[in-house]
């Protein structure tokens, strides 16, 4: 009979908590005392061994408190799209609970595609309520790793290719979640831009690219979001693992940025006692595992920050100040979360959470093509609608690695469409993608796959309209942890299937899921295309609301869709740039990541960054500047009117890009510096106002090793997407 270890620990801690709280001498137990006073008091009362014990795991997803003093443990939960199902105390096996089914929220790429800061706040609030209800103190997410390559298996867990957009969309999520007493553990810090060789690859990146592309989103969340915890990544930087990298964790994160929280290792990311002790790691999790599946018989006391670290302290080889700093950071986290009197009780699978899930999904879906306004599909327009595709019936919450979720309910795309169009909808799978396992997926036989394809083609002959629902999934070597995609093309023969369907029926709408871009060689053969990312529990309803016109699409791409893989900046430099040679990868494209490469180098994408169509239209007016010149440390406001010139209510995202045409170092043609999402009724006009600050104008000077603003002429572009400039303003920096 399995023990309920969580209950055991709670019973052990509870009596001490009561006695400590009833004794006014214990400042640390007073929830109304200042955090730093509580930390100082608790630190003074702890033994050396008690200090050591709170720095490492005591189970797969908990780290110890101090039962003698009533200081509670920390409970961790995989995210960032929902609370992972419970696993056993000391193994990766699922615990078999019957009350751990939750709401699967849309993927973070979907959240980024909403370009809606208010929805990010709603997301953080709702998901943290589910974490709190399950007794979790630390939410392992969100993620702001930059989408350098569309082959990255964990791209769906992150927020796109632009550091400004990623930081802005992560910030409200973090603030809302931590307001509820649940710490966000931002990941993966840093340069975890591929899953191939993730445990060993060393990233060679220039100082400017590091500072302008790969660190800004993390910095914003630390300094503006008050981030409480951050997760180190598996890879190396400067030949030192990121989880024990003094330059990254101590010098940049803690000293330069002023981070006062705890650095948590990725599971199995700590490798060397000396480097872990001195390199800035505060909490060590999952050591002696491969990160997510295999186990070790070695005890938690053998972790680098356990007995080996204690020995070094006792021998005087490492000063006590190093230990006390780590302990203070962990105590600070405990008092902010598990011993925070304002931490919410939370809730699970509430109607409010499903409504939030639905809203994010609706606003994250991106309309990429709408030839002859084939969308929206009004009920009754087509009598025979054929839905084709494995993703129409696949549970997209399963698989993917640590973000896999156990849901209470999932509305599939097929269910969502049938709820609107009823008996008009027929279904043929067309292709089969196996089960959502990490590896060793048993494919169907060739005859079985041919049968599925022929069935779809036969039914297509009788259909008035085809809705193909495919894209990526969360299988191994798709959108999945610990593996990258093998090809930029869609797998499972989808390209050929779409092409053959198009020969049978011209009215085709392609609906794709996935967290990364892919080739669309059939785009000229179809009339409509929607990209849905992963929409979570309300996937089918969100899709049906967009297709039917109940909701006007307003999502825009947080990543660029290239016509071919070779068009991307990294691909220009061959294998050394990805996936690397001899465990060394070189970011030779520098700051020219994503749209920066395409725009500056004159490469035309299939769909540009920030692109997304609507069922209505918008007109941009003439910008008005508060001044035509500013000082290098001043501000400037620019406003312009935007009008809905269509027939339905809709939302437009006004994207502000800034160009510095003449600079001492090469800069991209233009870069995203702000955005606003506004809702407009037909004929309605609203003024959109932006404030230009030095932060919008700066670049990293390799000569000065700092950000600088150079005087000169700057241009502000007001865009519907990166390639669609609707208005321009010019100003001078003195």
Provide an overview of this structure.
This protein is α/β, with parallel strands linked by helices and 734 residues long. Helix content is 28%, strand content 18%. The chain has 19 helices and 27 strands. Strands 1-2-3-4-6-9 form a six-stranded mixed β-sheet. Strands 10-15-14-13-11-12 form a six-stranded mixed β-sheet, with helices on both faces. The radius of gyration is 26 Å and the shape is globular. The N terminus is likely disordered.
Summary?
The protein is built from 19 helices and 27 strands.
Keywords:
alpha/beta; six-stranded mixed beta sheet; single chain; 734 residues; 18% strand; 19 helices; 27 strands; globular; disordered N terminus
Give the arrangement of secondary structure elements.
Elements: H1 5-21, H2 35-45, H3 48-53, E1 62-63, E2 74-78, H4 108-114, H5 117-133, E3 138-140, H6 163-179, E4 183-189, E5 202-204, H7 207-214, H8 216-223, E6 229-232, E7 236-237, E8 240-241, H9 246-256, E9 262-264, H10 273-278, H11 307-314, H12 320-336, H13 351-364, E10 366-370, E11 385-388, H14 413-421, E12 425-428, H15 446-460, E13 465-471, H16 494-504, E14 508-513, E15 528-531, H17 539-548, E16 584-586, H18 595-601, E17 618-620, E18 624-625, E19 629-630, E20 636-644, E21 650-659, E22 671-680, E23 685-692, H19 694-697, E24 699-701, E25 706-708, E26 712-721, E27 724-733
Parallel strand pairs: 2-3, 3-4, 4-6, 5-7, 5-16, 6-9, 11-12, 11-13, 13-14, 14-15, 19-27
Antiparallel strand pairs: 1-2, 7-8, 10-15, 17-20, 18-20, 20-23, 21-22, 21-26, 24-25, 26-27
Helix pairs in contact: 2-12, 4-13, 5-6, 5-13, 6-8, 13-17, 14-17, 15-16
